[in-house]
Amino acid sequence: MTKSKQNLSWLASATSLLAVATCYGSLAAVSLLSLIGISVDIDEAVLAKLITGLMILALSGMLYSWRSHRHPGPLILSLNAAALLLWVFYGSYSRPLELIGFALLVTASLWDFYIKRRVCITSSHHDENV
User: Fold this and answer.
1) How many structural domains compose the chain?
2) Span 63-79, mean pLDDT?
């Protein structure tokens, strides 16, 4: 895999983590601001759309990663996580399901990272032996 393609394949991991950080980071920031007396209203519909956009980028990155390493597990797990999160955001909200969805998305991202790392190590050892 070329260096530019390898860099692009990290999109999935980074964007998945960014989606989680966007959701819970904004909630943490609002909570901290409330502690010091600053009231902030967040439009939850806008936040849901932003997270949905980040999930689409994450799924695109997972698909790209899958095309390079051919291990379907992280892609399947991230698709299930995204489906669950979309249901939570646009169907019937449930805090436990939201947490499970984000946990699955992070797990898929970490799993994909592990596979990419293992593939890179294996290919570098193969290159050294050739």
Assistant:
1) 1
2) 90
Say if CB 68 and CB 91 are below 8 A apart: no
Confidence of residue 124 (pLDDT cuts 50, 70, 90): low
Q: Which amino acid is at 86?
A: L
Exposure class string for 72-99: b at 16+ Cβ within 10 A, else e: eebbebbbebbebbeebbeeeeeeeebe
Contact 82, 98 (CB under 8 A): no
How far apart are the two ends of the chain, measured CA to CA in Å? Answer: 16
Q: Please report where in the chains the tokens 């819970």 appear, as a residue.
A: 24
Rounded Cα distance between 123 and 103, Å, is 30
- Reduce the secondary structure of 32-89 to three states and give it as a string: HHHHCCCCCCCCHHHHHHHHHHHHHHHHHHHHHHHHHHCCCHHHHHHHHHHHHHHHHH
Round to whole Å and give the CA distance between 52 and 60: 12
What range does the domain containing 110 cover?
3-129
